[in-house]
């Protein structure tokens, strides 16, 4: 069995974290760099990730997270926020980075710029919000896979009040909204969930080869 498959079988949604263990700065940097390198539609990455260690902030977030212990017990809390709305500036900023990174003149990317704007600027506000949140989930999945390869436990969480998160983190002024939360750290030996068999659809149900 390939090592990555072993890693994915090893991981599970950790319910209890060992509060005495911390993810090292080196491993954290690896996780963040893997997240930065994640794929996103057009490469635009319309999201921002907050890396929360501050105990006071996490205690404030916990009541708005169904009082789940992972919020305060995990080594770090990664909060994925996505753009609620955007205009042409999202594309312009990205393409300015493309020109600088690749040494391209504006004329070389003019057609691509017009194409992206024609597709994204026509979206409704609701569809823009849905699209940006989907991009955040792509990054989340990549981060979780890399964490498993490092034997770092994770728990992706949607059980929270996004409005309260936005208020506590001051996201309203940044045109961001909380999309999904990821607790990372190391499983507690008392977490019985780690001993349960992984339940997934069989290949025959999940895949159709054409």
Brief account:
This protein has 210 residues and is an alpha+beta fold. The chain has helices at 3-10, 25-36, 55-61, 70-73, 88-102, 106-120, 125-149, 162-169, 203-206; strands at residues 47-52, 76-83, 153-157, 176-185.
Shape: globular
CATH homology group: NADH Oxidase
Over the alpha carbons, how many angstroms does the gyration radius reach? 19 Å
- At CATH level 3, the topology is NADH Oxidase
Give me the side-by-side strand order of the main sheet: 1-2-4-3
Structural class: alpha+beta
Low-pLDDT stretches: none
| Strand residue content | 5-15%
Q: List the total number of helices.
A: 9
For the structure shown, list the relevant keywords.
four-stranded antiparallel sheet, 4 strands, single chain, NADH Oxidase, 210 residues, alpha+beta
Description:
This protein has 9 helices and 4 strands, in the order ααβααβαααβαβα. α5 packs antiparallel against α6. It has one domain (3-87, 126-206): NADH Oxidase (3-Layer(aba) Sandwich), CATH 3.40.109. A 4-stranded antiparallel β-sheet has the order 1-2-4-3, sandwiched between helices. The protein has 210 residues and is an alpha+beta fold. It has helices at residues 3-10, 25-36, 55-61, 70-73, 88-102, 106-120, 125-149, 162-169, 203-206; strands at 47-52, 76-83, 153-157, 176-185. The model has no long low-confidence stretch (mean pLDDT 97). The longest helix has 25 residues, at 125-149. This is NAD(P)H-dependent oxidoreductase. InterPro entries: NfsB-like (IPR033878), Nitroreductase (IPR029479), Nitroreductase-like (IPR000415). One of its GO terms (molecular function) is oxidoreductase activity.
């Amino acid at each position: 069995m390939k090592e990555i498959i072993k890693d994915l079988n090893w991981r599970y949604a950790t319910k209890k974290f060992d509060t005495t263990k911390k993810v090292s700065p080196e491993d954290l940097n690896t996780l963040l760099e893997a997240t930065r390198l994640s794929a996103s539609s057009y490469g635009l990455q319309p999201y921002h990730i907050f890396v929360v260690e501050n105990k006071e902030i996490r205690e404030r977030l916990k009541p708005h997270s169904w009082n789940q212990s992972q919020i305060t017990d995990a080594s770090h809390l990664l909060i994925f926020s996505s753009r609620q709305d955007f205009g042409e500036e999202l594309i312009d900023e990205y393409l300015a980075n493309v020109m600088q990174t690749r040494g391209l003149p504006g004329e070389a990317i003019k057609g691509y710029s017009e194409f992206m704007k024609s597709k994204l600027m026509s979206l409704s506000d609701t569809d823009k919000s849905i699209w940006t949140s989907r991009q955040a989930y792509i990054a989340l999945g990549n981060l979780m896979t890399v964490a498993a390869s490092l034997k770092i436990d994770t728990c992706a969480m949607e059980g929270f009040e996004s409005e309260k998160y936005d208020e506590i983190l001051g996201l309203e002024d940044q045109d961001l909204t909380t999309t999904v939360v990821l607790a990372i750290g190391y499983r507690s030996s008392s977490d019985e969930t780690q001993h349960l068999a992984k339940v997934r659809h069989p290949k025959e149900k999940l895949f159709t080869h054409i």
